[in-house]
Amino acid sequence: MSEDLVKKFVRIWLAETEAVQEAYGKAVEEAEAAGKTIVSMGQTGSYGDDGKAEWEVTDVATGDVLASGRDDADGFGEALRKADPDGRWVNVDRLHPDPADPEPIEGLPGGLCDALVHWLENGADAPDLAEWLGEPVEVIERQMRG
Prior knowledge:
The protein contains five helices and four strands. The chain is an alpha+beta fold. The protein folds into two domains: about 5-30 and about 100-145; about 35-85. Strand 2 and strand 3 form a beta hairpin.
């Protein structure tokens, strides 16, 4: 196993991560061009003894709370239909493509590839990585934003 193989795998992950970001950006542009509002929605509190939980719908672009309440799952769905009767909201989670998950490359054990992905997603330092790869830090930061 060589350092070149590790670098090759890291470069593949970086390229795939950048492609994921571009796909997300395109999905956002298409939704906005269609007049949709991109929202984040979900539970904001624990379920109580009554089987209900606090929830909130937030406009991703502005941060404005568009709807909120305390309901069970059926009540949440009904509240969403009332708050967005024309179906203009798009949940941001539906726009995110699957994260980069490159296949192991020949010569590197699959477990090592998995460990590299974990490190890249959770703790890799862009300036250190850029220096090691011999790339401009701005390029690596852009590629790692996913």
